[in-house]
Structures are given as structure tokens and as C-alpha cells.
Amino acid sequence: MDRIAHSTAVDIGGGRRGFRSEDTVAGQEGTVVTATHLNATQEEMMAIIEKAGLAPDPGDLAQLLRAIRSQRLNFVTAAGVGGTANAVTLAFAPTFVDLADLVGVPLVSIAEADNTGAMTVRVDALAVTARTWPDGTALVPGDVKAGALIVERYDGTAFRMQQCLSPTQVAALSPRTNLLINGDFQLNQRAFAGGALANNVYGYDRWKASGASNMAAAGFGLALTSGEVHQLVEPAAWGFGNLASTMMTVSVEAPSHDLAVTLGSASGVITAGAGRRSVTLTTGAGDNGNLSLKIARSGGGACSFNRVKLEVGAGASPWMTRTLQQELLLASRYFTAWRIATVNGRFGLGMLIDNGDFMVNLPLLVPLRTGAPAVTYASLNRSVSFDSPITGVSSSAAYGNVFSVRFTSATTSGGPFICGLQAATAAAHLSLDAEL
Q: pTM (2 decimals)?
């Protein structure tokens, strides 16, 4: 009640002026309350309501409460920000008259420019004060981006930012799904030793050569000595009908040289440099089938790069690592292999018929992309009381999580017999190729 200025206001204790009720017992008269007092109070309330952006409504008794809760009383738009990128001025109406009045008050503003160093804030005509992170750490170049929404509070020493995120930074903190499988080249079910690959021949899981290429995995990336590396993306596997006319971003880490990137019918260049580097491309209207991604050194020659990512949207979001098990499940839709390095190690059991047909059912980690994969094998024996080489495949099919194959082998007398499919040498394998 300190703001009561009418002549009938009295001292109510503690040096404060206000109203006093009549006390008939003590014989004291009360304060005379006039329209002037009530109008002054009402004007202050209307000023708060209007400053919060509300239209005064005499019939709404909760407006003042909503105005105070809205915090829009202390919101400064970009147009209200002044100064420079590092020395910001915030203007309010009515103005603040003392820094002490700002302690604990949430101030909201929108940055007009990227900062290039430590920052200060000046509220109205008050003293210039440091702007810091919540723990008091000074800002460094790039901490504040143009368009960032800043929420800060003065603690008596500095304006400490509670929030400072631009739309780009928000997106950057939320990794988007990588539509590539084995983007870090860690899966190698084909046991590719690195080196030359002919056109369309696969090396590391999901990656094949485009033209004659030479490559080798290096850490979490690829050293491409020559040629072009290629992956086909199946939109339906990621929940898309197609990816035609879609803005997409291809990114890699630490490309040693400029990289030529071809995505469907679109193309661009990722420039060499440290950190995550990217190019954003829009696919063509005709790119409505499986989407082709090819990467090579711009102009040809050797290059290296790490952790390749393809995502829908503009700008690269952070690399998102899937677990090895998750990546293997994704890759096994297109290629799966059983390898046993121990002689006489068993792949599984089946039924041997007297004409030499040997039928085996083997479990799959996930259903294959097609029920008719290409089958290759090496160094396989069938074993009952003695070993006999597998000589061919007469039929095969994938049914959900089961692969059924009929091998041919030397004829036997009698039967049928329960028979083991075993490794004849340490190089034994059985592979199923369901690639695009």
C-alpha cells in the first residue's frame, strides 16, 4: 500500500501509508476511501492486463491472475533488442529502475545475431552486467545463435541463461533416423578383406562397388582408394511409400577430400574438413523406387570418410549409433551368412534320403527381403556315420524366420537318416543374398 498518495491515507506502521479501518472500541476513525483511491488501483491492474496482451474485461475476475502468470510482462521481442551481438540492450515498458528489481525475474528475448565472444546485458538504462550460463561460465563464440529464444534471470551478480536454443540447435539436439545400414562399416558378414571390387559386387554389409572400386574399412569409416561406393535404400523398410521430391541430407565425418555425392537423380559436394560435413539435396520426381546413394572423391582418386548418414530434412543431425545387434538385424534382411571356423562344426540337422537329397531347415534372425535368396556355400559336408561332400542345391526358400534348403550329395543305401550339416574345412559357410 506504499503507493497510496491521497491525503486521507495514514501511517499504518513500518513507515507505510495505507487505509485503516474505523475502530469504535478505541475511538479511532477510519480512513475515508474515495473514488480516487479505487480508480488508481484499477488503472494499475488494467496496465498489467494490457501489458500482458489481454483485452480488459470487467466481467472477467481472473484476468489479472492470468496476466501475471503469462510472464509476457517481461517478454522482449527481437525488435526490442538493441546493442551489438555481444553487448545486448533489453528495453521494457515500464522501465526497470533498479537492478535489484530484476532479481529472480524471468526475462525472455530473441537473439538478433550470433555472439562472437563473452556477452553483457543492459536492461533499460541500468548498469551493464555479464550474461553467463547457469553455472556462471562465460559465453564463447557461437553459444548464442541468431533467432535463439533466451530465458535468463538476474541473480544479483549476472544474468544467467536458463535457456538458449535456436530452431537449428533444437533440431541438432534431436538425431533423425539414419536411412543407411552399416554407415560406420562395422558389419562384414561376407568376410571381405578389403581391396578391389568389381561393379555391383558387395564388400561390407549393404555397401557395394559402383564401377571398379578399391576400398577398405578404417576405424569407423572407409578408405576409398579408387572408384565409388554405393548403397541402395529401400524406402518401404523405413515406412516411406517413396522418397521422390524429398529434401534429404547426406553427411559424413572428417572427409579427407571433397566428396561427390549422388542421391537418386540429385548430386552435390561435401567439402573436406574436420567434424561432421554435409550436403542437402532434393530428390527428383522420378526417384520413386529404391533410392541410390553413391559417394566418391570429387574429381576421382583416393579419399577417406567416417560414419555416413542419410536423413530426411535439411541440415545434418548428430550421428546416431545403433547397437551392433540392431544393425545386424537390419542388415540381415538383405544378406545373412552362417560361418563355422571349426572343422566338423555343425550348422544344423536335417533329413537324408537314399537318393542323396539332404533337407535342412535353418533359423533366420529376421525374415529376408525375398523368399528366394541366392544361395552360395563352401566346404559343406553331410555327416551320418561318415562325411560326404555337399555337391549342389536343388531347391531353397525362405519362410518367415526359417530357411529351407535341399542339398544334393552322393546317394546312400537305406534311409531316411537324420544327418548333420557340417564344416569340412575352417572356411565353411552358407550365405543367403537377398540384396536389392
A: 0.69
